[in-house]
Amino acid sequence: MSQRVLREYRRLVAAGGAANESNLHPTDPADLTHWEATLEGPQGTPYEGHSFPLRVTVPDKYPTLPPSVCFPKRTMPHPNVKWDTGEVCLDTLAGGWTPVMDLQYAVMAVRRLLAEPNPESPLNLELAALSRLGDHKAYDGIIKYRLAHSSIK
Amino acid sequence: MHTAAVDAEHEYVYEDDFDGNSFDDTSAEKYTDMAAGKKRNSIMSQESEFEIDDQLYSDDDGTDAYNDYTLVEPLSTVSARELNQGTVPNLKYECLTAQSIFEKMVERVNHLKLIFNICTEDLLSLMQHFDWNEERLLESWTDKMDDLLVEIGLKNASETVSGTQIDASNGTETARTLNFRNNFSCMICCEEKTTNTFSLECGHEYCIDCYRHYVNDKLNSGNIISCIGCSLALKNDDIDKITGSPSSKKLMMSSIKSFVQKHNKNYRWCPFTDCNYIIHLKDTSSLDEYARLHYSPFVKCSDSHRFCFSCAFEIHAPADCNVTALWVNKSRKESANLNWVLSNTKECPKCSVNIEKDGGCNHMVCSGCKYEFCWICERDWTPHGKSFYQCTLYKSDDDKKNAKTSLEVAAKTLKKYTFYYKMFNAQEESAKLDWTLGQAVGAKVRLLQEKMGVSWIEGQFLAESVRTLYEGRTALKWSFAVAYYSDASHNLTKIFVDNQSLLSAAVEDLSELLEIKEPAKIMDRKTDFYNKAGYVENRTSALIECGRDLLCKGICKPV
Amino acid sequence: MAPPRSQRKRALNCTGALVAAVGLGVTCWYLWKNYTGEAEGEQRLSREEAAESKCVVVTPSVCDVQNMVHWEMLINSDQEDIVFLVAPGCHDRFSSEVLSLVDEQFKYKAINCETVDGIWYCVKSLMKQQLYVIPSEVSNGIPNDIARYVQDIGQWRTREDILVAFPV
Questions:
Q1: How many CA atoms lie within 13 A of B335 on its CB side?
Q2: Mind listing the pLDDT tens digit for each residue in B295-331?
Q3: RING-type domain: which residues (chain B) (predicted)?
Q4: Contact B465, B513 (CB under 8 A)
Q5: Which of B22, B423, C112, C135 could form a disulfide with B480 if both were Cys (CB 3.0 to 4.6 A apart)?
Q6: Quick check: A64 and B187 CB within 8 A?
Q7: 8 Å CB contact of B228 and A98
Q8: Residue C63 touches partner A, C-beta closer than 8 Å
């Protein structure tokens, strides 16, 4: 449904930077299938102060089917993100998706996930276990380690 | 209802003359007779020699598994054949389809209408939401009543507050029907076109194409479909209107399917390809007891497909479900290493000409040099023709030396496993090839019958033989899994291996018969077919019983 | 003798073919370089991470050898891929004796764990090549499945063993 994506693109451009805090934009304006965004680490989380790139792919059957959203591999240590592939497990992007939602909503949902991990559906088993255990120092420590370690490389 | 078939005509008579072959080693025979005598107290008269041997084979821990269990019904109503095949005696189950389950649910709904004051459709949706679990539905209903309906989306919240429609902007006249609109701008596809639209009372209106795509996508989930924009529920009528076809049936079916999936303790899909039958086992409490006795719950669907209820897998007698699971798991892990075993073409050991196997029989004759050899072990055939079947016995060399390093132990275990895996696969492949061959020949025979005017009943012997052969090979195949996990030094294991050899020989004999291509010759050798098939059947039963004994006595330890 | 026009035409054809071949060769080389470059880069990354990457579980004995081993030197170094998991009860000691000597930018290499189970989850998450631990100082010892997450386990029994692995 390219009309729909086009409409979203136009709406984003018209609204300007203030409304688009994640800087959601298509990689190539001529091809609206691949989009990018940047998420700022929410305050009060170990992700604070870091920026995370996000990749959004729009399927043919959009908006009946949800867009696929993922992080680049080995950039996001999070209980609901698979470290090695960047895959995100979020109900809004799967069974909970309805066609009234749009790309920006999807990106915002991922941002909300950063601040509120969901222990029910973990893709990073060790981080999820640490969170369930209540060992917050270790949980924060691992995340900070990963973020610092990969940025040095 | 379908109880384990009572088949009085096929009572096991262990004094059958097998097929005239004489055996040097009669211990196997003796064993099977003893096993037969021990259990079939109520069917056969016990002779004195069996009583003596009974004590010899009593359990060490004092509990005599054979006489201890209490069955629901006496053994005499169960056919000896069923017992022999390792099935659970008197297993009660029924064979259903998704459609019949749905119809039963509709019946229940009609009963429930008296308690709830809602229309049938809504009630169906309610049941669907609670996974067709009446108790949960009743519980929730007594708790929440109308609020429950709002929660699920069957009623608009506004309706319950004042009893009248608050949101009148989209009037009830336009809701739940297709409306034709000019230049309608749909929010979903962002196109402006002249089209039909659909909306519910909530007023969320979208073009019919979008709604159709949306509904079609959700039909497979089995859950209630709600409005695109809110949680108000679409009724089955609405779904049909939107898609223009009776799709709500599809939704109901997928809901029933997920119900079956969730209740997989009592319900099982028939694992055969393209078979849509469901087996429903009402009482699963007895299964544990039977598992202890190493019986497996084998069931049969209305299409005559037999499978194991616990494993949803093929019949795996003489192995029990535990052994089967371990074996399958192991082979999945080791399959990468053992791929070479599965090759269907091999070279003749003498002249190295490529031979491709197209029949189940393992007795190969090289077309080039006429060398006769066994497909499985690639050695001379002549020792195989005699009573002792060399192939099946695993001779582990270096028994005296203890493996020094863990590497050596691992190598030895792998070697042993490779041997049994090879045998297992050989039998599986042979079974498949036999079956295909059998079908082809069967077709020819039927043609011949029409020409010669032979009755259909008479011609059934071929189909029966093919089936018996297939069952024999399957039992033999799984017996290797049992043998792998068994203690090789124990006497009973040796007897078990003997039984394997006998069955192997019998099966190869019958398989050779199948290789006869001319239908006229087949009709001539009809009596041979009968004899050899009967022999295979007997040996199969004996092997299964022996296997079960190994398991009961703990000689076979699946680890 | 061939007429000059067809001769020129043939020469033109030859040069055209030559140019096309060279162009094709260059494209292929470029693509191949990109492809292997990517694979190489990834390999380099994983090899770096795998080579000599260490994970140390900090227990009282580990703190004791600080005077001889000087852990902060390993932490402060860019070349050393090492992480310290500080067991419950040793946080303050490790912090005051070691981390106070560490540059701010490297402090992430020390992770404080509030529970013993937490230590093992961290080990599994980080998947370093070598694990150093004194099992007797960790309640319940080493979990059975830890071999799936690390390659070598240097089990120390006494503090002298530590000095062997990390020479003064």
A1: 8
A2: 788 888 888 788 888 888 888 878 888 888 888 888 7
A3: 182-395, 186-231
A4: yes
A5: B423
A6: no
A7: yes
A8: no
